């Protein structure tokens, strides 16, 4: 680590998920490739498996696997205090927090915990300067009601269906107020069911249509053995490694529109996402030894998601957290891949605007490599909203060069 560079804590994507975005490319297993767009090129980065039980993190105390939003914030704050005690040469550096998806809850609660600690005299002093959140879960109302207008704006549903939904639901799509509204939302669900909601431009790697049997997610008349498909034995030959395997559930698991958002906060899988490369690489014994991960008998096998955590979502909306943190001078960047339908940019832009800060940099394109890379709007109090054109839920994975560029500019305090 560079003792003079800014430090960034990168949190996980959700309470059940860990995947290091922007760190490795693994198109040719089992080789590791240098990522030319790694954020570590411009800052020190602490990658944290949090809460305990995600990634390679584990505890000897089973009660630690019962956790929630507030406990995760407290535990992470304790971790940071201990980390800075071990590496005091980084104490004077500007410190930032970043993450995506459910980190929209983790980050403001953690930042609040850090600031409360500073007020109460906790040591060492963490030099927190700001945070950035990508396609982050924030507020049930804004996030949950964004999918229908987003789908219409993207041309995924017809004008007629959209108007029918608007007429009977009156903007309340997350909690339907009538059977007519629920019926129209079920129709909406049927239309978009087999899309990759994490990036509507991309294929759904779970999605499988058998031409011979004319059925979805089936092999003959039998269901897929998903447990076996998940195992390395299913990829014994190199040509199989390239196949898009139908290894997870269908996009919607119930009849509520809220499933779009609940994938992030309750499911134990990342739907439509091809995670075989990190699965194979991170479960290799030599790799685990090289990265100083505990043995499998202690942590279990690495997976994108885990089902051993009992997680309590005990915070709800974090809009008030943002207001308090912005008011005390922290710099905040809210960024969104504009083709994510799990946490659509329209909802993020709406809640950001709802904070009521004065616009000081009106909506405009931002440029990367002489091309429009997205759009941005700047507010008073160092709040910025940014979209990334063509990216989905995981921006650094979908648009790595553009992600490094806006991160570098924001970190340096430059105009994006």
Sheet with most strands: strand arrangement: 2-1-4-5-9-12-11-10
**Strand element count:** 12
Query: How many helix segments?
Result: 16
Name of the top-level CATH class of the largest domain: Alpha Beta
> What are the secondary-structure elements, in order, as H or E?
EEEHEHEHHHHEEHHHHHHEHEHEEEHH
The CATH architecture name of the largest domain reads 3-Layer(aba) Sandwich
The CATH H-level superfamily of the largest domain is Alpha/Beta hydrolase fold, catalytic domain
Largest sheet features: 8 strands, mixed
Query: What proportion of the residues form beta strands (DSSP E)?
Result: 15-25%
End-to-end CA span: 26 Å
Structural class, by secondary structure, is: alpha/beta
Rg, nearest Å? 21 Å
Instruction: Give the uncertain stretches in residue-range form.
Output: 13-24, 215-259
Quaternary form: single chain
CATH topology of the largest domain: Rossmann fold
Assign an overall shape: globular
Average pLDDT reading: 83
Q: Kindly give the count of domains.
A: 2
- Work out the helicity level: 25-40%
InterPro entries: AB_hydrolase_fold, Peptidase_S10, Ser_caboxypep_his_AS, Ser_caboxypep_ser_AS
Organism: Spinacia oleracea (Spinach)
Main location: secreted
Keywords: Carboxypeptidase, Glycoprotein, Hydrolase, Protease, Secreted
Question: How would you describe this protein?
Answer:
This is Carboxypeptidase. With 416 residues, this protein is α/β, with parallel strands linked by helices. The protein folds into two domains: 233 residues, Alpha/Beta hydrolase fold, catalytic domain (Rossmann fold, 3-Layer(aba) Sandwich); 132 residues, no CATH class. It has 16 helices and twelve strands. An eight-stranded mixed beta sheet has the order 2-1-4-5-9-12-11-10, with helices on both faces. A two-stranded parallel sheet has the order 3-8. A hairpin with a 2-residue loop joins strand 10 and strand 11. The longest helix has 18 residues. It is globular and about 60 Å long.
């Amino acid at each position: 680590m560079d003792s003079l560079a800014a430090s960034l804590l990168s949190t996980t994507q959700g309470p059940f998920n860990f995947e290091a975005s922007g760190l490795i490319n693994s198109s040719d297993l089992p080789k590791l490739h240098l990522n030319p767009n790694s954020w570590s090129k411009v800052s020190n980065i602490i990658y944290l498996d949090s809460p305990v039980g995600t990634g390679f993190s584990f505890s000897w105390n089973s009660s630690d696997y019962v956790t929630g939003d507030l406990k995760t914030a407290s535990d992470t704050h304790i971790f940071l205090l201990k980390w800075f005690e071990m590496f005091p040469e980084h104490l004077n550096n500007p410190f930032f927090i970043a993450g995506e998806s459910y980190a929209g809850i983790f980050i403001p609660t953690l930042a609040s915990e850090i600031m409360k600690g500073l007020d109460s005299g906790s040591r060492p002093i963490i030099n927190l300067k700001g945070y950035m959140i990508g396609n982050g879960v924030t507020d049930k109302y804004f996030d949950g009601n964004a999918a229908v207008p987003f789908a219409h704006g993207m041309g995924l549903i017809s004008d007629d269906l959209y108007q029918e939904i608007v007429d009977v639901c009156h903007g309340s799509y997350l909690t339907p107020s009538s059977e007519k509204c629920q019926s129209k939302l079920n129709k909406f669900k049927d239309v978009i069911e087999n899309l990759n909601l994490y990036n509507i431009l991309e294929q759904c790697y779970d999605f499988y249509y058998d031409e011979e049997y004319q059925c979805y997610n089936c092999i003959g008349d039998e269901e897929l053995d998903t447990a076996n498909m998940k195992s390395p034995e299913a990829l014994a030959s190199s040509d199989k490694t390239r196949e898009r395997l139908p290894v997870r559930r269908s996009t919607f698991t119930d009849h509520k529109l809220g499933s779009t958002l609940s994938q992030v906060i309750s499911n134990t899988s990342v739907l439509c996402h091809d995670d075989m490369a990190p699965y194979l690489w991170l479960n290799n014994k030599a790799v685990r030894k090289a990265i100083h991960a505990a043995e499998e008998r202690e942590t279990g096998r690495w997976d994108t998601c885990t089902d051993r955590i009992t997680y309590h979502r005990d915070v709800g909306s974090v809009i008030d957290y943002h207001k308090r943190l912005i008011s005390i001078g922290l710099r905040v960047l809210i960024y969104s891949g504009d083709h994510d339908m799990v946490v659509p940019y329209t909802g993020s832009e709406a809640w950001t605007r709802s904070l009521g800060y004065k616009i000081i940099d009106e909506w405009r394109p931002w440029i990367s490599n002489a091309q429009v890379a997205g759009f941005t709007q700047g507010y008073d109090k160092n709040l910025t909203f940014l979209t990334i054109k063509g990216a989905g839920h995981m921006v650094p994975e979908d648009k790595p060069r553009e992600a490094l560029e806006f991160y570098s500019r924001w970190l340096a305090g430059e105009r994006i």
